[in-house]
Design a protein that fits this description.
Elements lengths: L2 H31 L4 H6 L1 E9 L2 E4 L1 H12 L10 E13 L5 E13 L5 E15 L2 E16 L5 E2 L5 E2 L7 H4 L17 H29 L3 H6 L1 E9 L3 E4 H9 L11 E4 L2 E8 L5 E14 L4 E16 L2 E16 L37 H29 L3 H6 L1 E9 L3 E4 L1 H12 L5 E2 L1 E3 L2 E9 L5 E14 L14 E14 L2 E7 L2 E5 L25 H4 L4 E2 L76
Parallel strand pairs: 1-6, 9-15, 16-23
Antiparallel strand pairs: 1-2, 3-4, 4-5, 5-6, 6-7, 8-18, 9-10, 11-13, 12-13, 13-14, 14-15, 16-17, 17-25, 19-21, 20-21, 21-22, 22-23, 22-24
Helix pairs in contact: 1-5, 1-8, 5-8
């Protein structure tokens, strides 16, 4: 490999690392905020960094530090019983052409409590900018746009009780699918060797595998699939629960999990534990890794009308064994648990002893000596492309959520591949951009300038499997859906326009088309749980009266789908608009997976490795259009 080729590869590796570093800076900001670490949070900003919060502007690290502390007040998270948990997720990052600055959009939801009776919830979105300063990525501007807020007792409403404007986006549909633009000019001299670059690429690939494993763990926990959870651990793995002891070995791991209940969910049981803001660090040598995230517990039993909140930190140490990552140690630190009816204002109940789980440092990525497996130039490019694909797929996935939130149908359709297809809920699939946009417009109407109510479509906790050649991917994301309205109680809808709702995008696919990532297929399975009203929450849901099926989608008559859900057999059995008897919360919908257990290869009960309409309409398969089908099970560099 010649010097110019090495320098060009070094520049490209650094640019993928930069996208990861930008995400990690913001995630660590959320981690620090959970424990009121104002000094460290302010240190994440550039020297002249600023905060724009609604109508406020604060400039400089010292002023930002004071502002953070003052705004939190007694809800600082420092003392057991107080709560300052902010979830910041659904990243959409765009790097500048010179690789020195970046912009990113994030969703935010903040849970606050002082332990003395005050409890609040706030939500909005960030349009932030970042800059390289002193060799590290830092926040140049934290620009928050508030959307909803309220005291826990009454729930939240639109900020100011007004219609909400559409917040301008830093990206276009084309830019959403290309987080890293083509470089400009000749690459700078790097001095990097092929072996060093191979090690850095190996670290990026390992980050992807570790993140997938941690996120897959979360989905198994949701459904209390303890056999699959145990499979993710090494034989002598350890689970440590603050206040709940240490559990060693496979039997110990299972006992630790069974503290949440026996294997499987029964009628009315909720064990939803989405994981946010996961930071991954691959240690030198490439044989061990650490990760840290925030877990939100949405728990309950609707048969007894009981619901709970739980706020925790989840940390893991993983090892690479036979080319596959496994969990060596898992640490769960519950900070606060609260009865839904009472909320967390009085501090709830907690086992937290005040010991803060170790933070991970969003330091620049570098070499991991010993991790490299080869230095063939073409193969290095291919392997780097697989990690660049991970970020590209996450970007276009987030773009879908943002365009959907804002009813921007033309832009939403533009992030699909030319022959891509999308499910419209409760109706069926539409093929091609014109049909996708047409269905959205027919169902929801034109794009408004202001909205009285919004259903936010957070697409989080991705499990992304990229093809061997880096040109296609399977994607699983969670639908985390806070809803808001200026008058929630007066909004005529089956699902209350407030509170939280949940679903799954289990079989999405994306392809690289004309140098940009586009969605190939999108499927939504919903709702796994819903909130009929704020007072009773998800545990207050009641079964639909017998003999009263849900109404059909109006699209079936005004804009019929190309492939109706009723044509998809067992894959859509139980889902509204699909086949068989409709299953609705508090009954338990099936949960489908596009992948087998990433360690043992166990096939889940509900396994669908390709796009949902593929069996009915083979021409919708990505393989019919020149793309590889991504791996669906234990894999080493794309080979199952």
């Amino acid at each position: 490999m010649g010097r110019t080729e090495l320098d060009a590869l070094a520049r490209d590796v650094a640019r993928v690392e930069s996208v990861r570093a930008v995400k990690d800076v913001q995630r660590v900001y959320a981690h620090l905020g959970q424990f009121g670490r104002w000094d460290e949070m302010a240190a994440l900003f550039a020297e002249g960094g600023e905060v724009r919060w609604g109508g406020e502007t604060v400039t400089g690290r010292a002023a930002i530090r004071g502002w953070l502390a003052a705004r939190a007040g007694a809800t600082d998270g420092r003392t057991p019983g107080t709560l300052h948990t902010e979830l910041i997720d659904e990243p959409l990052v765009n790097l500048s052409a010179d690789g020195r600055t970046a912009r990113a959009r994030w969703m935010s939801m903040r849970f606050l409590g002082d332990g003395q009776g005050t409890a609040r919830i706030e939500g909005g979105l960030y349009e932030n900018s970042y800059v390289v300063e002193g060799g590290r990525w830092r926040i140049a501007r934290l620009h928050y746009h508030p959307q909803f807020e309220g005291d826990y007792r009454d729930g939240w409403t639109n900020v100011g009780g007004q219609d909400l404007p559409v917040v301008g986006k830093h990206f276009t549909p084309d830019e959403a699918g290309r987080p890293i633009p083509p470089p400009v000019g000749d690459p700078p001299a790097s001095g990097a060797t092929a072996a060093e670059l191979a090690e850095r690429i190996a670290r990026l690939n390992d980050e992807d595998a570790v993140r997938n494993l941690q996120h897959a763990y979360g989905y198994y926990v949701d459904r209390r699939m303890w056999t699959d959870v145990v499979d993710l651990f090494v034989p002598d793995g350890v689970v440590t629960i603050a206040g709940g002891g240490e559990h060693i070995g496979r039997a110990g791991v299972r006992r630790a999990m069974e503290r949440m209940g026996p294997e499987g969910l029964g009628y009315g049981q909720l064990n939803e534990r989405p994981i946010f803001d996961v930071v991954v660090e691959v240690l030198p040598g490439g044989r061990e890794a650490r990760c840290r995230g925030i877990e939100l517990g949405l728990l309950g039993d609707a048969t007894r009308g009981e619901g709970w909140w739980e706020f925790s930190v989840i940390c893991a140490r993983l090892v690479k064994d036979g080319g596959l990552w496994r969990i060596k140690e898992l640490s769960l630190t519950p900070l606060l648990r609260a009865d839904y009816a009472e909320g967390w204002g009085a501090g709830g109940t907690t086992a937290w002893d005040g010991e803060v789980p170790e933070f991970l440092d969003p330091a620049p990525r570098g070499c991991s000596p010993g991790a490299a497996t080869g230095v063939d130039p073409a193969d290095l490019r291919r392997r780097l492309g697989r990690s660049a694909a991970y970020d590209g797929v996450e970007n276009v996935s987030s773009a879908y959520g943002y365009y959907l939130d804002d009813f921007e149908w033309t832009e939403m359709a533009a992030i699909f591949a030319t022959r891509g297809h999308k499910q419209s809920p409760f109706a069926g699939y539409y093929v091609g951009r014109d049909r996708i946009a047409g269905a959205a417009g027919a169902n929801w109407g034109p794009t408004p300038q202001r909205r009285g109510a919004i259903s936010f479509h957070w697409r989080i906790q991705p499990v992304i499997h990229v093809s061997h050649d880096g040109r296609s991917a399977n994607l699983r994301t969670r639908l985390f859906q806070p809803r808001t309205s200026k008058d929630p109680a007066g909004t005529p809808t089956r699902f209350y326009m407030g509170g939280l709702h949940s679903g799954m995008y289990p079989n999405d696919q994306a392809v690289l088309e004309d140098g940009r990532w586009r969605l190939w297929s999108l499927t939504i399975d919903e709702h796994y749980f819903s909130t009929p009203d704020w007072e009773s929450g998800w545990a207050g849901a009641k079964p639909r009266p017998e003999g009263e099926p849900p109404p059909p989608s109006r699209l079936l008559t005004v804009y019929p789908p190309d492939i109706p859900l009723t044509a998809l057999g067992r894959r859509m059995e139980g889902f509204r608009g699909g086949t068989g008897t409709t299953v609705e919360w508090p009954d338990i919908l099936p949960m489908w997976f596009h992948y087998r257990n990433p360690v043992s290869g166990r096939t889940p009960e509900h396994f669908w490795p390709d796009c949902v309409p593929c069996e009915q309409a083979p021409e919708t398969r990505m393989t019919a259009h020149g793309y590889q089908r991504p791996p669906t099970g234990p894999e080493i560099d794309g080979v199952e």
